[in-house]
Amino acid sequence: MEILDNFLYILIEGEPESPEVPFIRRVIDNLINKELLSTIDYKVVEIGGSGNFNSIGKLIYPKSKLHQSIPIIAISDRDFRTQEEINKMTSKPDSDFLKKNSKSVKIIYWSRHEWENFLLEDTETIANLLNQIPIKTSQFKPYRSNITNNVTKAELDKWLIQYFQNLIMEEFLECLRFRFRHNLWLSLDKPKSLFLPDMEVWFKNQIVNKARESRKNIFRLKSMFTDTVQEKFWQSYINDPSKFDFQQAKIFFRGKEAVEHLRTEAIKHLSIENLGEPSFKELILRELDNNTNSLIVQELGLMLKPYFQQAANMIMKLHK
Question: Residues 167-175: contacts with CB within 8 Å, 24+ apart?
Answer without folding.
Answer: 167/253, 168/237, 168/238, 168/241, 168/244, 169/194, 169/196, 169/199, 169/238, 170/194, 171/253, 171/254, 172/228, 172/229, 172/234, 172/237, 172/238, 173/199, 174/254, 175/81, 175/228, 175/234
